[in-house]
Amino acid sequence: MNSKSIHQDVYISAALFMILALLFTITLKLPESSSIFPYMLIGGIGILNMFVMVKAISKTKAMRSSESNVTNPINWESIKIPLLIFLMTVVYIVLFRFTNFFVSSTIFLITLMKFYKVTSWKVILLTTVVFDIVIYVGFVRFLNVPLI
């Protein structure tokens, strides 16, 4: 194994730390009463990510040793589906700018179910309609959250 190679988890953990730093700076602009939960969430994820980073560094050290059986298999086949789901999620978030929660969520649900090869239109429609009704009743009616 190449002595310069670094395990892929190190890159992932470092990217997550950068995202957390960005989220932390965004949270600084929130009012104090509204920022408590985001700070707790960022701190909790940061602590868990520290464990990931420590494990990733130990994997890198083990990978560099000659008798190591740690592999670093990153290729298109292993990341294709997660990247496609990520891209679908980005499109879903962008749809919020142009539509409301129910329109974008309905499109997202149908797209994901077709992506995962759910072939029955009855299942797709029933799942989507039940999801929309439950969210509407729970959030719009009971909690008065403006999702429309």
Describe the structure in your own words:
The structure is a single chain. The protein contains 5 helices and no strands. It is an all-alpha fold. The protein has 2 domains: 73 residues; 74 residues, no CATH class. α1 runs antiparallel to α2. The mean pLDDT is 90.
Quickly describe the structure.
By secondary structure, the chain is mainly alpha-helical.
Q: Catalogue the unreliable spans.
A: none
Largest sheet: none
What gap, in angstroms, lies between the N and C termini? 55 Å
Order of helices and strands: HHHHH
Number of strands: 0
Class computed from helices, strands and strand pairing? mainly alpha
Kindly state the percentage of residues in helix: over 70%
Return the domain count.
Answer: 2
What portion of the residues fall into strands of 2 or more residues? under 5%
Mean pLDDT across the residues is 90
Question: What is the secondary structure topology, with strand pairs?
Answer:
Layout: H1 8-27, H2 36-64, H3 76-98, H4 101-115, H5 121-142
Question: Keyphrases for this structure?
Answer:
148 residues, mainly alpha, 5 helices, 0% strand, membrane, DUF1468, transmembrane
